[in-house]
Amino acid sequence: MRNLHIKNIFLKKLFFKYELYKKYLKYFFFNLNLNKNYRVFIFKKIYIYHTNSSIVRLKFYCFLSNRSKGIYKFFHLSRIKIYELGNIGLLPGLSRNIW
């Protein structure tokens, strides 16, 4: 489990390192006013970048239980912990639905 967290930290660093540069290149790639050869050159540069630097590769974990599935990104908690903390009333703005 610890190795997965270390890998995830490495992937986050890669993502934030290349995020702005990839957006910069994509802006020029989709600009139709530029020369086609230049756009092909930019596409090759985008393609060469590390595939693990994508946000899709990141995995989100619950802070309390280290659960990797059923995570709400706004709270960074699993659905089980949100249910438990919501019943106690520790999450502000969260109320139970009573049918």
Quick check: average pLDDT? 83
C-alpha end-to-end distance: 39 Å
Low-confidence stretches: none
Number-wise, the strands total: 2
Determine the oligomeric state from the structure: single chain
Strand share of the residues? under 5%
Number of domains: 2
Order of helices and strands: HHEEH
Instruction: Find the structural class using helix and strand composition.
Output: mainly alpha
Gyration radius (Cα, Å) is: 20 Å
Question: Largest sheet, order of strands side by side?
Answer: 1-2
Given the structure, what is the number of helices? Answer: 3
What overall geometry do the principal axes of the alpha carbons give? Answer: elongated
Estimate the helix proportion, in percent. 40-55%
The main pleated sheet reads as: 2 strands, antiparallel
Question: What can be said about this structure in brief?
Answer:
This protein has helices at 2-29, 36-48, 79-88, and strands spanning 71-72, 77-78. By secondary structure, the chain is mainly alpha-helical.
Structure notes:
It is a single chain. The protein has 99 residues and is mainly alpha-helical. The protein folds into 2 domains: 1-59, no CATH class; 61-99, Irregular (30s Ribosomal Protein S14, Chain N). It is 52% helix and 4% strand. It is built from 3 helices and 2 strands, in the order H-H-E-E-H. The chain has a two-stranded antiparallel ribbon. Helix 1 runs antiparallel to helix 2. The longest helix is centred in the N-terminal third of the chain and has 28 residues, at 2-29. The radius of gyration is 20 Å and the shape is elongated.
